[in-house]
């Protein structure tokens, strides 16, 4: 399971004066579920199309199993793609869509039947084998596309926003199913998405992209807990970010003078130098909000007073927009559980305390 | 992992009550009465100008010949008996040969042109296809005489270049007729092909390539089935008018390209045998309808079990 499967080496791609990819290098390991995550126009689909062979890089090389594949046309690469709009052949039935790659190779009929049957079972579509794509639901179409892409037994499966056309609930189900298929077939999946939840929930590693560049590559918790820069912090999940200056460093404990939150204590195992300009960020779910400051509160707990500007009830949690003295808004997520409940219900215009541990904030250093 | 029976996939199947595909629903609003009103103008038009003349032609074909043209109003099979004649068989075969050849050539030329136009996304190209219609049809045929004639541009060019020393007889034969018929009906084939190819989802070609198809395989196995209706329309728009062609073989053709249209004109204007010309028209109608039926049968939607 080790070793590199796909290696992108200094790939750039321009369309006229527009730079879609700017010197991208990535190594994707064999058998990995790897996500390319970024907003639309960040170059993630272009990178996928280059790996698939539909675009040629302006510069750089793409290795598949240590062989440069740039000159190889898509039909001779051991890579298959699940397209965003499914791209099922409307004139063929479900089983003939899945059989398409085998028919091209003039596989004997008995073989075709057996393998199509196997892949129909893999995606649980045996009962729909003779339907036309137009008779299927979105989720079923997606599964036909996955089976069709897998039947050639590619080394790498490319998935281009495969779930974007489906509704939220179905997306979650298919995502879990996709993860199960990945475990079963054991090949490398490269998954393009703009949805950070999709990327975080199933990927072994995620590459966050913006403006044609890879900003950070890491495991989902690394991306979330230790974003490389302000863009990653803001793009992955919601967060509260403020500019800050380092005023004191004592071991791992850093004191910041922040733009809107005043003096803030934060721990960092690789602390910046005093006087450095940094970005301080803390996730809304790590903040606590109460009307009264708890009596027992440690010295390393940051606290700040504010007024509830907007309470938003979301069922599984509540969102509070807390307005600080200067008008800066801090987002706080609060779970609904009795054991977490501190005192009376918090309402609009209530004066509240927002507090968090020094361990829960983090410093995003520029130039790292 | 996939084998567990309570996987989320189980709930993905559509509810059993919902008809798959959502087809078969009645269009909403509008009673039958108002619907009838909407189609009344076109129904009257078609009845008055297409159905009635056709019935008259069929009726005339079963009547006796009038002395100076026209018909005697009594039943007669003389016209159909006159059709049992090797000349008609030969002319019918010639007509089929010319119209099939013209149709095949027209589609072969129109397909790549329409494909290029649709992929380039340049709407001005569409205008270029329509430009010939701005000039009268007959003028355009005479232009071909000016090009292909013995003292025409093509012979001038060939002799100036020294390719030939004497003029080449381009006109008044089957090839000339086919050339001009292809030229005439090319726009009629390009337009429906363009409109279907333009709507075609080209990612399907990428998908085919991705799945291992060569460029040609992707066109043959995915593009052609995808634009079948456009090809069908283009074939009809070319085959039916070429089968009844009259002006082109009359002006450009010779002995070997005498078509059914020419016989009809001769019987109508020179021999003044109206029942016979009507009978030939009926035969043309039957052959084109039969051709259409065969085509529809071959292209019927197949249900595979």
Distance between the termini of chain A: 31 Å
Which strand order spans the largest sheet of chain A, edge to edge or round the barrel? Answer: 6-7-8-3-9-10
* CATH topology annotation of one domain in chain B: MetI-like fold
CATH-defined architecture of one domain in chain B: Orthogonal Bundle
**CATH fold descriptor of the largest domain in chain A:** Rossmann fold
Distance between the termini of chain B: 31 Å
Major sheet characteristics of chain A: 6 strands, mixed
Helix-strand string of chain A: EEEHEEEHHHEHEHEEHHEEEEEEEEEE
The CATH homology group name of the largest domain in chain A: P-loop containing nucleotide triphosphate hydrolases
Largest interface: A-B, 50 and 32 residues
CATH class of the largest domain in chain A: Alpha Beta
| Poorly predicted parts of chain B | 1-25
* Helical/strand content category of chain A: alpha+beta
Continuous helix count of chain B: 13
CATH architecture of the largest domain in chain A: 3-Layer(aba) Sandwich
What is the global morphology of chain B?
globular
Report what the structure shows:
The complex is a heterodimer of chains A (368) and B (305). By secondary structure, chain A is of the alpha+beta class. Chain A folds into two domains: 231 residues, P-loop containing nucleotide triphosphate hydrolases (Rossmann fold), CATH 3.40.50.300; 128 residues, Nucleic acid-binding proteins (OB fold (Dihydrolipoamide Acetyltransferase, E2P)), CATH 2.40.50. Chain A is 23% helix and 37% strand. Chain A has a six-stranded mixed β-sheet, sandwiched between helices. In chain A, strand 17 and strand 18 form a beta hairpin. In chain A, helix 2 crosses helix 3, helix 2 runs parallel beside helix 4 and helix 3 packs across helix 4. Chain A is elongated. Chain B is mainly α. Chain B has a domain of 211 residues: Orthogonal Bundle (MetI-like fold), CATH 1.10.3720. Chain B is built from 13 helices and two strands. A two-stranded antiparallel sheet of chain B has the order 1-2. Chains A and B meet through strand 6, helix 2, helix 4 and helix 5 of A and helix 8 and helix 9 of B.
């Amino acid at each position: 399971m080790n070793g590199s499967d796909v290696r992108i080496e200094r790939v750039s791609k321009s369309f006229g004066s527009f730079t879609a990819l700017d010197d991208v290098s990535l190594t994707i390991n064999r058998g990995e579920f790897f996500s390319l995550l970024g907003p639309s126009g960040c170059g993630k689909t272009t990178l996928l199309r280059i790996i698939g062979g539909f675009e040629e890089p302006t510069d750089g090389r793409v290795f598949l199993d240590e062989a440069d594949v740039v000159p190889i046309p898509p039909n001779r690469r051991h890579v298959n793609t699940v397209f965003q709009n499914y791209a099922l052949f409307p004139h063929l039935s479900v089983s003939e869509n899945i059989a398409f790659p085998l028919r091209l190779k003039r596989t004997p009929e008995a073989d075709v039947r057996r393998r199509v049957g196997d892949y129909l079972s893999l995606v649980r579509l045996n009962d729909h084998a003779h339907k036309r794509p137009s008779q299927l639901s979105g989720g079923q179409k997606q599964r036909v596309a996955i089976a069709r892409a897998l039947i050639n037994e590619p080394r790498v499966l490319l998935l281009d926003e495969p779930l974007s056309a489906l509704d939220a609930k179905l997306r979650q189900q298919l995502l879990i199913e996709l993860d199960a298929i990945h475990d079963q077939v054991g090949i490398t999946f490269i998954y393009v998405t703009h949805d950070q939840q999709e990327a975080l929930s199933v990927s072994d590693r995620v590459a966050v992209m913006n403006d044609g560049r890879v900003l950070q590559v890491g495991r989902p918790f690394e991306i979330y807990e230790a974003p490389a820069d302000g863009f990653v912090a803001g793009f992955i999940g919601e967060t509260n970010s403020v500019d800050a200056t380092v005023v004191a460093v004592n071991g791992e404990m850093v004191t910041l003078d922040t733009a809107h939150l005043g003096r803030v204590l934060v721990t960092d195992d690789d602390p910046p130098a005093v006087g450095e300009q940094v970005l301080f960020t803390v996730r809304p779910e790590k903040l606590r909000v109460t009307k009264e400051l708890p009596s027992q509160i440690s010295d390393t707990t940051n606290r700040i007073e504010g007024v509830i500007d907007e309470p938003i009830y979301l069922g599984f949690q509540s969102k509070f927009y807390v307005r600080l003295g200067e008008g800066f808004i801090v987002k706080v997520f609060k779970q609904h559980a009795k054991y977490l409940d501190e005192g009376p219900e918090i309402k609009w215009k209530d004066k509240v305390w927002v507090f968090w541990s020094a361990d829960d904030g983090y410093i995003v250093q520029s130039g790292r | 992992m996939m084998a567990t029976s309570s996987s989320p996939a189980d709930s993905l199947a559509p509810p059993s009550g919902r008809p798959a595909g959502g087809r078969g629903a009645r269009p909403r609003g509008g009673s039958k009465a108002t619907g009838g009103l909407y189609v009344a103008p076109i129904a009257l038009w078609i009845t008055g100008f297409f159905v009635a003349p056709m019935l008259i032609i069929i009726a005339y074909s079963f009547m006796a010949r009038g002395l100076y043209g026209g018909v005697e109003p009594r039943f007669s099979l003389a016209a159909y008996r006159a059709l049992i004649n090797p000349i008609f068989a030969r002319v019918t075969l010639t007509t089929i040969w010319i119209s099939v050849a013209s149709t095949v050539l027209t589609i072969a030329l129109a397909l790549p042109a329409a494909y290029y136009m649709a992929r380039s996304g340049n709407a001005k190209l569409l205008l270029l296809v329509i430009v010939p219609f701005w000039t009268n049809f007959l003028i355009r045929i005479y232009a071909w005489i000016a090009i292909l004639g013995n003292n025409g541009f093509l012979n001038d060019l060939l002799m100036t270049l020294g390719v030939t020393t004497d003029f080449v007889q381009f006109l008044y034969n089957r090839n000339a007729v086919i050339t001009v018929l292809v030229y005439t009906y090319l726009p009629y084939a390009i337009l429906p092909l363009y409109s279907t190819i333009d709507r075609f989802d080209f990612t399907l070609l990428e998908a085919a390539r991705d799945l291992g198809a060569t460029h040609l395989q992707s066109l043959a196995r995915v593009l052609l089935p995808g634009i079948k209706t456009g090809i069908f329309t283009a074939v009809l728009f070319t085959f039916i008018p070429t089968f009844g062609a009259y002006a082109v073989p009359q002006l450009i053709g010779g002995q070997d390209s005498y078509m059914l249209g020419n016989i009809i004109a001769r019987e109508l204007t020179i021999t003044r045998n109206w029942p016979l010309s009507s009978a030939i028209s009926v035969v043309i109608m039957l052959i084109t309808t039969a051709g259409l039926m065969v085509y529809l049968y071959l292209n019927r939607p197949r249900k595979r079990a």
